[in-house]
Design goal:
heterodimer, A: 135 residues, alpha/beta, Beta Polymerase, domain 2, 5 helices, globular, B: 113 residues, mainly alpha, Four Helix Bundle (Hemerythrin (Met), subunit A)
Chain lengths: 135, 113
Amino acid sequence: MKMGPLPAWLDEATAALVKETVNLLIKRHADILLAVILFGSVARHEERPPDDASPSDVDLLAILDTTDRLVNTYREDIFATIIDAYALHLDAPREVNVLLSDRTMQTWDSMFLDNLARDGILLYARGSLPAPLAA
Amino acid sequence: MKADAHHRHAESLKRAIALARPDPTTSVAIIENAWGAAYHWISYGCIRKYQQHRDKHQGLTAYLIGLGEQHLAQWWCNVEDVRQAGFYGNQAGESEVQEALELLEHIRTWATT
C-alpha cells in the first residue's frame, strides 16, 4: 500500500472534503485513530465522473484502536465528526463514505483486504498497519 | 416517487425484516433491507416536513445537512457504514443487525413524528 497524497484526479471540492474529514478525525480522535485509507474506484482511478447521474463515492476506511468492529464507545462521536466535516463542504460533488474498522481486521473478507492492500492509498497512519494489511 | 410510495416501500421492507429469522445466513439481507427502509423513511419524512426530497441516495448526506438535519445525516452515514461493512467486508453479525435496526428506528421515528 502506498502512502498518500490524495490522487490528482479527485476534483478540488471533494478533495477539500476528504482532507477536512481526515484532519478532523485526527484532531478529535487522535487517541483511537490508527489509520485512514482511501480505497475503491477513486483509489483505482476507475471512478465515474462527478457530473455522472451516479458519480462514484469516495471510500475511506478508518482503522481504530479497538477490537470492537462497531467501535461502540466512539461511534456516535466519530459520525458527528464526519458530519461536521461535511457541513463545511456541501459543494462537494461526491459523497465521502467512511467505513470503520477495528484494529484486528481479522474477520474482514479476504478479497476486500487484498483489494485494500493492492489499491489502497494510505492517507494517515500512526504506527504499523493491522497484520492483514501489513504484508 | 411520491410520499405514499416511499411510505409503502418502507413498510414493505420493515415487514420483510420482521419475517426474516436473524441468523448468519440472513443478516446481510436484513441489513440491506434496513438500509433500503431507512432511505425510504428519509424520503417520506423530507416530503412530509420540507415538501421536497432527494430521489436517490447519492448525495443524501450533504442534502440532509443542507436541510439542517445533522442528526438524521449522522444516522444515515452510520447505516451506510453498517451496510458497506456487511456487503463488502463480511461484517454482518448479530451486533451489526442490531445496530442497523436501532438506526432504522431512529430514522422511522424522525420521519413519522
